[in-house]
Amino acid sequence: MKKFDKDRVLLGLAAPVLAVVGGLIVTALVLLASGKEPFHAFHLMMTYGGKSDSQVYILNKATPYYLSGLAVAIGFRMNLFNIGVDGQYRIAAFFAAAVGGAMSIPGVIQIPVIVLTAMAVGAAWAAIAGVLKVTRGVSEVISTIMLNSIAGIVIGYFLQDGRLGVTNKQSLSTSTKPLPSSSHLFNFTTQTDPVYGFIVFAGLAGVVYWFVLSRTRFGFDLRAVGRSESAAQAGGVDVKKMVVISMVLSGAMAGLVGMATLLNDAHQYSTEFPTGIGFTGIAVALLGRNNPIGIAIGALLWAFLERASNGLEFEGYDKEIVGVIQGAIVLAVVIAYELVRRYGLTRQQRQVGAELAAAGTPTKQQEVTA
Predict the structure, then answer these.
(1) Which helix (H) or strand (E) element contains residue 175?
(2) CA gap 111, 264 in Å, rounded
(3) I want to staple 356 with a disulfide (CB 3.0 to 4.6 A). Which of 3, 251, 274, 361 is the partner?
């Protein structure tokens, strides 16, 4: 049993390692083809990314990436592709900022209200795709992509002066009313920039994700539906109900993505609020194989690559090379996990065959031959 567990761990580590190595090899070939020296580029990335201010930047950037990866992973566990995390977290952050800016109560109450508002809005927005799927058979990929665009339209409509927006006369920019200082979340002080305090809540979200999906009956049912809907339904699982609940949970997790920026940095929602994090979460979830620890590593790697691109730019390298690395890693992830899965399956079959042969029981192939 110990040997089996050891083999499982090794197989689990092999896929992400192969993915990263494969991505670096592809990047090295691209650099060589463009006349650049790859090893010097990798050295620059490690040096620049290892600086103290870069480490703070990486942690702050990885926090929303991690939460986005968790939101996507909830859907992935049920073979649902929630492409709408980007729209869900933006519309959730917008209404949470509007609610927070309209209140003036103690921070110990206001901060939970803001966070819960974001989770509720994100859950409601994702639930639309879930309901459309189980009632009308609409693919969640199509509906969530369309809901991303609709979310942007809704935000643009309400983010106007006189509605939920306030125009800054000096910069002529429009944003929600700033949050009162009492609702600003704590930061961890460092020698350079502060680390967002919301990183603690992101860690707790990862623990909750692991516990619910790995240690509860609901998590078992969710994973069962993801493996085989017909088998899960035969076992008494309401598949349609699970689809809606999974989308709701994914949207609620997506609602947390923008909270680090809102509560620790911007303290308001404006047109400068970060976008595209939801799509990054897809790559992070793939790299982490839907595992909370793996997703954390993927989020840190993604943030590191983005930060390291600045070091390359200073030395005359094209900044887009980091995009090549990220794309190569995502492609290598798909290939590496499939190779490892097939290798593990073949190895299991051989082990079962060897055990049957040792016990004197003919295998299916031997029976056909006979």
Answers:
(1) strand 174-175
(2) 11
(3) 361
Q: Residues 237, 238, 242, CA angle at the centre, nearest 5°?
A: 100
* CB-count burial class (<10 Å; 0-12, 13-18, 19+) for 114: buried
The Cα–Cα gap between 208 and 212 comes to 6
pTM of the predicted structure, to 2 decimals:
0.89
Compute the average pLDDT of residues 186-208: 95
Are 353 and 32 spatial neighbours (Cβ–Cβ below 8 Å)?
Answer: no
**Cβ atoms within 10 Å, residue 76:** 20
The pLDDT, as a whole number, for residue 8 is 67
Q: Helices 140-158 and 85-102 sit at what angle, rounded to 10 degrees?
A: 30
Query: CA distances (Å), 304 to each of 48, 63, 152, 189, 333, in order?
Result: 10, 12, 29, 21, 18
The pLDDT-based confidence of 296 (bands split at 50, 70, 90) is very high
DSSP 8-state class, residue 138: -
> Cβ–Cβ contacts within 10 Å for residue 1, how many?
5
Please check whether residue 309 is in contact with residue 321, taking contact to mean a CB–CB distance below 8 angstroms: yes
